[in-house]
Amino acid sequence: MTSDSTSKTPIIEIRNVTKIYGSDVKAVDNVSLEVNRGEFFALLGPSGCGKTTLLRMLAGFETPTEGAVIIDGQNMGDVQANRRPVNMVFQSYAVFPHMSVAQNVGYGLKIDRVPRKEINKRVEEALDLVKLGGLGNRMPDELSGGQRQRVALARALVKRPSVLLLDEPLSALDAKLREAMQLELVRLQKTVGITFVIVTHDQAEALSMANRIAVMEAGVVRQVAGPNELYEHPTSRFVADFIGQINMFEGTASTAGDGKVKVGTSAFNEAVLSGTATGKVAIAVRPEKVSISRDKPSDTGTIAARGRMTDIAYYGGFSNVFVDIGADTPVLAEVSNSGRNVGPGYTQGEEVWVSFKPENTLLFDH
Question: In the CATH hierarchy, which fold is given to the domain comprising 10-241?
Answer without folding.
Answer: Rossmann fold (3.40.50)
